[in-house]
Write a structure and sequence with these properties.
Its EC number is 1.17.99.6. By secondary structure, the protein is of the alpha+beta class. The protein has 17 helices and 8 strands. It has one domain. The strands form 3 sheets. It has a 4-stranded antiparallel beta sheet, sandwiched between helices. Strands 3-8 form a two-stranded parallel ribbon. The protein has a two-stranded antiparallel ribbon with strand order 5-6.
């Protein structure tokens, strides 16, 4: 998943915008056809690897690296993470464990995995300014534009086709792209390929690009030379990401308890958000970027040139009340081709009710909440009732830890 909330926790989950492994059930048992290609001389393999990386840059990827299909070193930590229940209700993460740890079982015949990353931060998009305005809706920045899955998968397919063509007819190259579409431990694989290290916030960090990028994988049956892994962490003594997490979702460095993570609660979770966490969610209605925004390495994050990642329907500056007043038809129309649809209309209404309850309130907001209540599900009604009670009692908003952190001065905002 996305380097995102899209790139997240060690072993772990892909929150910010994962597609569940249900999508992968149609492909996990399929081997690469004619998986063993004719032998290719080592100098020719090096030439192909060099050309592949250049072609990846031409296709819009900011980095491309090659690694072995092996994540077995994650077995102990993955088992412990699942045993502690940190996956919440994402039960698909408990499935296909052997395929996660041994990717060649996922795609029989795979000799290498080509890892790519693509920057996603849209240009001219505010972060802290929006977070600090309780009347505005904060949506994780990776999902303001079109759904990245199709774009990256298409580019990966083009990269595989280039490799087939360049290898020539004597070498039958086979490939299969993945973008959050199978049981792939992409962050450990990205680390093994040298793309970056796993930070204390569980995301892949790159010294020249921070963490605001997507990851994708291309499984191939050609033994291209592999890149050196990233063997060191460059986080040092910094704990900014852990210190400012609104819901204290990191029980220890490098470990994420999804059950307390705002991205999980507003995207993956289908039930009632725990009452004690609701005030801490603030105006975040889909995902959370706080642990990435505060990271000093993200001062090197690049704005994406991709038009598809630019905000649609002015979602980067939308008012909470405007979005709450959408009916389902409007929601479906305005989120067509967007990862936001993952939360569903009920989840969208639930999240907005919580955010409105954390806002300034006012008569217009109170009327909107009361008017909507008879026409929504029991789940949404519960969150509307909480919002009304909170606003009518004039409860003070919870502080935003990120705003008071000294590192906030580094954050580039527009």
């Amino acid at each position: 998943m996305y380097n995102v909330v899209g790139n997240t926790a060690l072993l772990t989950l892909i929150l910010c915008p994962p597609i569940t492994d249900l999508h992968a059930l149609f492909i996990v048992e399929q081997p690469l056809a004619n998986a063993t290609p004719s032998p290719v001389a080592e100098p020719r393999l090096q030439t192909l690897a060099t050309g592949l990386k250049q072609r990846a840059r031409e296709l819009g990827f900011q980095q491309c690296a090659i690694t072995l299909p092996d994540a077995s070193m994650e077995a102990e930590q993955l088992a412990l993470w699942l045993e502690r229940g940190y996956q919440g209700e994402m039960h698909y993460l408990e499935q296909h464990l052997e395929k996660r740890l041994h990717p060649a079982l996922l795609v029989p015949g795979a000799e290498r995995i080509v890892m790519v990353r693509m920057d996603y931060l849209p240009p001219d998009t505010s972060t802290l300014t929006t977070l600090a305005d309780p009347d505005k809706a904060y949506i994780a920045r990776y999902t303001l534009g079109r759904d990245y899955h199709k774009l990256i998968r298409k580019r990966l397919k083009q990269l595989g086709q280039w490799l087939q063509q360049e290898a020539g007819s004597e070498t039958e190259v086979q490939f299969r792209p993945f973008v959050d579409s199978g049981p792939v431990l992409e962050r450990p694989l990205a680390r093994n390929a040298g793309i970056g290290w796993v930070g204390k916030h569980t995301l892949i960090l790159n010294r020249s690009a921070g963490s605001l990028f997507f990851l994708g994988e291309l499984f191939i049956n050609l033994p291209l030379p592999v890149d050196a892994p990233e063997t060191e962490s460059h986080c040092g003594r910094c704990t900014a990401c852990l210190d400012i997490c609104p819901t204290r979702a990191f029980p220890e460095p490098g470990v994420l308890d999804a059950r307390r993570c705002i991205s999980y609660l507003t995207i993956e979770y289908r039930g009632a958000i725990p009452i004690e966490l609701r005030p801490l969610i603030g105006n975040r209605i889909f995902g959370c970027d706080d642990c990435q925004l505060i990271c000093p390495w993200n001062r090197f994050a690049k704005r994406s040139p991709e038009d598809d990642f630019k905000p649609r329907h002015a979602l980067d500056q939308a008012d909470l009340l405007t979005l709450f007043n959408w009916d389902e038809e409007t929601f479906l129309r305005n989120t067509e081709g967007s990862a936001i649809r993952r939360t569903g209309f009920e989840g969208w209404q639930r999240n907005l009710a919580v955010a409105l309850g954390n806002g300034r309130g006012g008569e217009e907001v109170l009327q909107a909440l009361r008017a909507k209540r008879p026409h929504v599900s029991a789940l949404v009604q519960e969150h509307i009732d909480w919002a009304l009670e909170r606003l009518e009692s004039a409860a003070e908003p919870s502080p935003l830890p990120i705003l008071s952190h000294p590192g906030a001065k580094r954050i580039q905002d527009y």
